[in-house]
Structure formats: C-alpha cells, structure tokens
Please model this.
Amino acid sequence: MGWKRSALCSGLVLSLYPLTAAAADPPIDSSPSADRAVCESAPKVVEFRGSSTRLSPAAKQTLDDAVAWSKSSADHSLRLRGPAGGGAADSKVAQRRTLAVKSYLSQKGVDPARISEGDQSSGSASATGAGAVKNASVVEVDTCSTALASATPATPATSPAGSSSPSSSSGSSVAATDPTLNLPAVPPVPPSATGIAAPVVPPPASTTANNAGPQTPPGEITDRTASGTTALSTLPNPPVAPSPSSSTTSTSSSTGYQEPQPMDNGSSNTAMNDTNDGSDRPHSRVGIGTTIGGGVIGFVDDKARAFTNPGGSWETRVTAGTREFVALEAAYVGSAQSINALGLDNNARLIGNGAEGDVRVNLTRQMVQPYLFGGLGWDHYQLSMSGTNTSSLRDKDDVLTVPFGLGLSLRVAKGLLIDLRGTARAAFYDDLMDGPYAASGQDAKLHSWNLAGRLGWEF
Model:
C-alpha cells in the first residue's frame, strides 16, 4: 500500500506542474530602464583656441543653446565629453576645459545633477563615425533625454513553450461549449507586485446592426469559436506615452527628438542694437566726444560789417553725453577777421579768443544725430598787426556772448565723429566799434554768425 500511495502522490504532482508553471511570475523584462537617458547622435562642439581654457563668444553661444534645451523639459540632461588620451599635461588642460564648460552651464542655471562627464572615446557617433572630431581642443556636449527611453515600450515576456494559461483555456472551452455566452474571452492578467491580481473588466460586446456577431476591435487578433463567439488571443497593442516635451517647440523624427531652436539674440539684433545704442555703446557708456575744427565767421550788424569782412574761425570742443538726450559742452573758440578803418594799417586784423559752455539737446541717439544747443560765452577781441592806432576804434574789448544754434553729428565708424554746426552769438557789453558812431548816439553791435565743421573721437 505504501508504494501505491507514493505513486499516486507523484502522479498528482506531475499533473499540477503545468498549472503552477503557468501561474508563476512572468520572466523579468530585460528591456532598458525608463530612467536611462538616450543622447542625440550629433553633439554640440565647444572649441578652445590653442592651449587656452577660456570660453570664446562662439563657445558661449553654443552653450547657451544647450542651456535653453536643458531648461525646456525636466527630462533633458547634458553629458560633457572631453578629449581622451594624450599626456599628463594634455589631460590637465582637458580637465580644466571640461570644468570651464560645466561651471558656465551651472552659472546659467543648469542643475549640476543633470550634468554628467565622460570622454570622447565613449558612446557617441561623433567620436567614432565619419566626420568625427579628432581635435583635442574641443569639449563635446551631448543632449540627452529620459523621455526617449521611457517612450520605448518594454518587450512583453513570452510564456515557456508548451505551457498555456488556465484562464484562457477555460474561457475558450466555456465559450465553445456554452452557446448562451456571447462575450469574448478575457486574457489572463499577470499578478501585480503585491501578488494580488487586478480585477478584470470585460470589454463590452459590440455587435453589428443585424446582430451577425461581435465586431473585431481594432489592433487585435481574433478567432471565432464554433458558436460564433469572438475569442481574444493576443493583447492589444500597448499605447506609447506622449513625450512630456511635446508641448515645447521640439519635434519628433526618425532619429529622435530635435532640440528646440532658441531665439537668435546675436546677429538678428545687431541692427537694432546699432539704432538704440545697445551693444555698440563706448566705454564711457554716456559718450564723451572730443572734436576740433574750423569754419567761417562774420558780424551781423551792418555798422560792424562796415569795418570788417568775414574771416576764419577755429574751435576745440568736449561733449559729455553724446549717447544721451541731454549733453554738456565746453569749448575754446577763436576767430580772425580783416578790419579796415582810417588810422589802421592795411594788414590789420581783429583777433578773437574765448570760451563757451553749452547745454546740448540730442534729438536722437542713433548714428545720425541732429541736436539743438544754447549757453553762455566770453570773447576777447584785440587789434593785431597794426603799428599804431589813430582811429576811433578801441584796441581791445571783452564781450559777453550767448551762443545758440543747431548741429548734426555723424558716427561714421566706431568711435569716429563728424560734427557740423551753425552758431549765432548775441553780444553784450561790447563797445569796440562804438567810437565812430558816438556823435549819433548809435552802437556797432558785435553779434556774429558762425558755420563750422569738426572731426573727432568718441570715448
């Protein structure tokens, strides 16, 4: 009897083995982890000049693009790869360059935890493919995304050969033998991590208009039993989760996600910066210009013009605020005019020297800059190149002036100024030429006009 019981138990165990094998946990999925980042095939290349470890403007522009791409989604990260191999000195320079790139990215707000490091000998098409960068003076920046890895569906585990699911077998047999049931068989649900199977909700039976039988759901492979019941033999195609970055400007292609294109704040804004005084401002920021030049000067009053002719003028001027709407000016002015009067030599000259201070109102801050000005000045007139003065004119005179007028300033190149100006000067406390008109009680006023051009430099 003992051997009979042993044989009976062994047969029971062998008969239950396929059921226990089918109900066991499915094999462990060997697909890549969803947290593993997938990097683009074309990295960004940051070049260094010679043995320098300083970032050039072009390198900073490249890194700014990487910063914008990293900040566009929480799934984006960056991987820095410096040159591999070389001597000890080259290795130190490569480490410093990689550190310079990482420090710049951190300063721009990229989380250091989202920046990894490697070398150009590992895992990049740019390091091994055609057209690879072989220069040891570069640091490559890979743009990586965990969304690409998480969007790849895991390969469903396959059951061992020869095993079958009890649920599907029983469901198919019931549907084949019981014609009253008109529901498709439900596929087996693998046990969850807690060991408790999730409840199964059977899909609603959809029939055609003439109740010819249930319709086949799209994306499923079905067969029919003897009673016409549709039995589900495979799982529906797993949906692919949309990428979190789909709301950004990045697009999907066959090779992966393309990084968003940042706004071009460089060359496209150059013309704007030139017109609104942005990046082309001089070192002084407000603009300090020094100019020197000359022109033509003459008196306005006909009594003064009866003794003099138009002559030449010269001046040197300093302007503070060429890039602002209001500027201040200080100038030295001089003039020389021929003077003819009874009692003077034929080559006599009237020489003027003085100083002025103006307030200048710039109408624009562009390269072509019209302006208005007005201020106060002082002129000292003196007769020159005359041995004796037996005329009724005085030898010298100090005159208070009020200069005002308009001008046009041109910045033809960076720092180079051309200035054209027309000036009228009202004169007060002037009695240089009053002598000839003393009998009539009239005065010869020294009001003057001046047209001048100057050339200078802006700091």
Summary: The radius of gyration is 47 Å. Residues 2-23 form the longest helix (22 residues). The CA atoms of residues 6 and 49 lie 85 Å apart.
